[in-house]
Amino acid sequence: MSMKRSKIAVHTLLAAAACGTGQAAWASGYQFDVQGVRTQGSSNAGTAEAADPSTIFYNPAGLTRLDGTQMTLGATAVDPHSTFSFSSATNGSGQPVSPADSGGSYAKQAAIPHGYLSHQVNDRLTVGIGLFVPYGSKIDYDDNFVGRYYGSAVDFKSLDINPSLGFKLNEHHSIGFGVSAQYLDVKLSKSQDLSPVAFGTCLAGGGDPATCQGAATAYANQPDAKVHISGTDWGYGFNLGYLFTPSDGTRIGLAYRSFIKQTLHGSAQFVVPDNLPGGSASPLNAGIRTALANGSASIAVTTPESVSLNAYHELDTRWAVMGDITWNRHDRLQAIEIDMPTAQIPDRKVTQKTAWQNGWRASVGASFKLDEQWTLRGGYMYDQSPVSNSSYALTVLPDASRQLYSLGASYRIDSRNAIDLGYSYIKLKQASVNKTDDDYDSSNGSPGTLNGSYHTHVNLFGIGYTHKF
After folding, report:
1. Strands, E, within 169-212: which ranges?
2. Residue 17: what pLDDT?
């Protein structure tokens, strides 16, 4: 490949990555597992096929099957349809939340890009680089969302830069290795009922419970305070792969992607209503503003590791079958803890239990070579949710176990160019929410209770392009 073409390929890859600034995750938890359109067509069952440079994400050992220099660019459009219905909700004072609605069209559409570049150094060594969006969520409820005291919006963005190499040990065995530089950018928003803040502030000032309860009732019908948390950070990890090829038409792969620990640093911004009971001279109002003062913020995040076993087998010159089983370690996330220290309150924090559990994802698929230009694909996947109990469900990451049905097609334009198309339909189980103050710890007021359920289905539309230089 000429130097000019190399620069064009790298610049194109960077441009694709730059588009990954807004996304919605529709795999377990906050993951986005569709990182190649060709693989999407089989519901992620075809990861051992290693047919294009997206194998950098799925199994870097598959790079050894790619000759010359190749580039794959793609994007998946996410079209979610989700509704929330509630049976009851109370604020921190035990009163029904008012005003209250189901949150409107809170699940947002998005496009998830990815780009990969591979280069065969010699008969044994192939190197590559991938840029993709591994995690994300985009949720934004209406102002009167009934669950706003637990969370009203999240904008979770990510980018992974993954240089990799594949090395062929012999004709049957290959290994792969990659390193990841991962960027996370998270913004969270919620509302804060002022009545419990007033109660806690009064107690901290030496008031007795009966007096403080009476003082807090004056704030029960006041407009909510708003809380906006943000943080960013880079973290680093790695991925490993092994590919066994007993024959030209059969491949068995094993892949591992590490966890990445990150601490996101940013700010905590509070918007407190101007007209509080008692006016500016009230000591209680001064205490409330101290409790809800702006400051720094930090959030510890450990993204999950995964282990995948997959296989691909050609039945004849036209038909191939494939499968994948993946284990995701989600139990590193047992709580979301946000530290927001100020000079007056150095230990100020909010902690919300999650108690996530580990989960399995399994998929099966098949492909059919229609002619020299067209290849058709289909697949099915079942993906376990990490949510262990409805008491720990998150309004900003509503999740449930899901089924994914996919169809795909590849069109070979000529010996150097191919286009991939994919469509997937995701159906999530009904996700119940039964939250109480017992699952939430905050020195700045309780969120009350929330009982309801989510109903969600999602359409994914993918398009990809592969070019051999």
Report:
1. 173-192
2. 43
CA 157/CA 20 separation, integer angstroms: 8
Q: Tell me if residue 28 falls in helix, strand or coil.
A: coil
Residue pair 70/166 in contact (Cβ under 8 Å)? The answer is no
For residue 44, what are its two tokens? Answer: 């992620």
The β-bridge partners of 14 are: none
Closest to 204 measured CA to CA, from 421, 443, 365: 443
The CA angle 48-50-55, to the nearest 5 degrees, is 100
Report yes or no: 249 and 313 within 8 Å, Cβ to Cβ: yes
Name the one residue in this structure whose structure tokens are 């049957």. Answer: 172
pLDDT for 8: 46
The end-to-end CA distance of the chain, in Å, is 6
Phi-psi region of 143 (alpha: psi -120 to 50; beta: other; left: phi over 0): alpha
Q: Any idea where the domains of the chain sit in the sequence?
A: 3-468
> What pLDDT digit, counting tens, does each position of 54-108 carry?
999 999 999 999 999 999 999 999 999 989 999 999 888 888 888 889 988 888 8
Residue 96 pairs with which residues in a beta bridge? Answer: 90
Kindly calculate the radius of gyration of the chain based on its CA atoms and give it in whole angstroms.
Answer: 25
| Topology, domain 3-468 | Porin (2.40.160)
Q: Can you give the pLDDT at residue 203?
A: 86
pLDDT score recorded for residue 73: 96
Backbone phi and psi for residue 95, each to the nearest 5 degrees, phi listed first: -95, 150
Peptide bond just before 99 cis, omega within 30 deg: yes
**Which of helix, strand or coil describes residue 287?**
helix
Could you say which residues of the chain have pLDDT below 70?
1-29, 440-444
Instruction: Give strand ranges (E) for 2-147.
Output: 69-90, 110-120, 125-132, 137-140
Cβ neighbours of residue 345 closer than 8 Å, sequence gap 6 or more = 290, 291, 293, 443
Q: How far apart are CA 196 and CA 289, in angstroms?
A: 13
Report how far residue 261's alpha carbon sits from residue 285's, in angstroms, rounded to the nearest whole number. 39
Taking only the tens place, the pLDDT of each residue in 294-329 is: 999 999 999 999 999 999 999 999 999 999 999 999
Check if the beta carbon of residue 111 is closer than 8 Å to that of residue 152.
no
Task: Tell me if residue 368 falls in helix, strand or coil.
Answer: strand
pLDDT value for 379? 97
Provide, for the chain, the percentages of residues in helix, strand and coil under a 3-state DSSP scheme, each rounded to the nearest 5. Answer: 15, 50, 35
